[in-house]
Design a protein that fits this description.
Two copies of one chain form a homodimer. Chain A is α+β, with helices and mostly antiparallel strands and 204 residues long. Chain A is built from five helices and 13 strands. Chain A has a seven-stranded antiparallel beta sheet with strand order 4-3-7-10-11-6-5. In chain A, strands 2-12-13 form a three-stranded antiparallel beta sheet, with no helix packed on it. A two-stranded antiparallel sheet of chain A has the order 8-9. Chains A and B meet through strand 1, helix 1, helix 2, strand 2 and strand 5 of A and strand 1, helix 1, helix 2, strand 2 and strand 5 of B.
Chain lengths: 204, 204
C-alpha cells in the first residue's frame, strides 16, 4: 500500500515531521566533518550530510549550507580563510561526530568538546580530523545562492587528500567499507553499509 | 599509514583512476532513478548518484548534472516538461537501475530495455518507476551553472510523494532500510546499509 502526499499535504505537516520526512526521502547521504579555522585561531568542526561530488578534473566537491539568517561559523570561517576540510566519519566516531552538531558557545571548540583530534598540514589553514581515514583539503572555488530558500552551495577545489593506504583499490576507488565509514539518513539515523557488488560499466 | 595526494598528483592521475578516486572520496551517495518524458512521448529513466536535499519548507531537492557538452536527454526532457521524478533503488532492482546508465540509441526507452515499469499519476508529465518504494514528483524550480567545470545544479520543488506505507515512522522518517534501499559509492559500487542507531538531537 502506498501513501500519497501532495505539496499541500507536505506544507501542512508539523514542522519536525516535515523536516524528517523530506530529509530522509531521497536516500542515503554521506556523513562528513567539516573542519574550519577562525581568524582568531578557533578550531571548528561540524557534521554535514550534504557533501556532493561535482567533478573529477579539476577535483571539485560541493557542500550545501543552510541560509545565513542565523550566524554560521562554518561559513564565516570558510570565507575568512578561503579553505576548509572534509573528513570521513567511521563507526568508531559517529556519535562524537553527531555531537558536533550541538550549539556550543562561541568559545568552545567542537573538536575539543567531543574528544576529536585536530591535525594540520602545510597545505591549508583548516584543521583535519585526525581520527578520519579520509581527509580532504579544499580551497573555496565558488558559491551559489539557492533563490527558493536562501541556502548556499559552496564549491571547493580539492588541493590535498590524505587517505589511509589500506582503503585504496588498484583502480583508484576509495574502499569506504574498509574504514567502517558510515552513511546517514536524514539528520539522525546512522548506517553501516555492506558491499553488495561492484558493477561493470553498463553497455546496451 | 596515510598516502598524501596534492592537487598536482590528482591532475596527473590516469583519467579513470582519478574519476573513481574523486567519485568515492567523499562518502556514500543515494542511488536514484530520474524519470523524464520527452515531448514526443519517449520515456527516459537514468540512474543518478547526485540527488541532494536542499530544504524542507518548501520541499526542495537538487540534482547535479554533467556539462551539456554532449546531448543530455534527462536535462532536455526536464526542460521540455518542467518536471521530473526521483525514484528509490532497492537491492531487488539495483542491477537494472545501473544498466539504465548504458548509452542506448534515441529510440530505446531505458525503462523498457531494463525491464522496469513506468507509472504515471495526474500530478505531472514524467514517469515514476513502479518498482520503487519511494517515488517523488518534482517541478523544475531553478538551475545553477557551476563555472569551474560546467556542471548544472537542477533544483526541483516536490509536488507529489508516493511512499510505501510500511516505510513511514511515526515521527516522519522514511525508513529506507525497510525497502532494502541501496547506497552507492562512486559510479559502480553498491551497498546495503544496516541501521546502527537513531541519535537524539545533540545538545552541549
Amino acid at each position: 500500500m502506498y501513501q500519497r502526499f501532495s505539496l499541500a499535504d507536505i506544507m501542512d505537516m508539523e514542522r519536525s515531521y516535515r523536516r524528517d520526512f523530506i530529509n530522509t526521502l531521497s536516500g542515503y547521504k554521506p556523513a562528513n566533518l567539516i573542519g574550519t579555522l577562525s581568524t582568531t585561531g578557533r578550531l571548528n568542526a561540524a557534521i554535514f550530510n550534504s557533501v556532493l561530488h561535482i567533478g573529477a578534473k579539476p577535483p571539485l566537491l560541493g557542500l550545501l549550507m543552510r541560509p545565513l539568517t542565523v550566524p554560521r561559523q562554518t561559513y564565516d570561517y570558510i570565507k575568512a580563510q578561503n579553505c576548509f576540510t572534509i573528513n570521513s566519519v567511521s563507526q568508531e566516531i559517529y556519535r562524537q561526530a553527531h555531537q558536533t552538531g550541538a550549539k556550543y558557545d562561541e568559545e568552545t571548540s567542537e573538536l575539543e568538546a567531543t574528544g576529536l583530534t585536530p591535525l594540520f598540514t602545510d597545505a591549508l589553514a583548516a584543521p583535519y580530523v585526525a581520527e578520519s581515514a579520509v581527509k580532504i583539503g579544499l580551497e573555496l572555488e565558488e558559491e551559489h545562492h539557492i533563490r527558493a530558500n536562501g541556502c548556499l552551495l559552496i564549491v571547493g577545489k580539492v588541493i590535498e587528500v590524505l587517505v589511509a593506504e589500506s582503503l585504496l583499490s588498484d583502480a583508484g576507488h576509495v574502499r569506504l567499507e574498509a574504514a567502517d565509514t558510515v552513511a546517514v539518513s536524514g539528520l539522525d539515523r546512522y548506517f553501516l553499509p555492506r558491499l553488495l557488488s561492484q558493477e561493470d560499466y553498463p553497455r546496451p
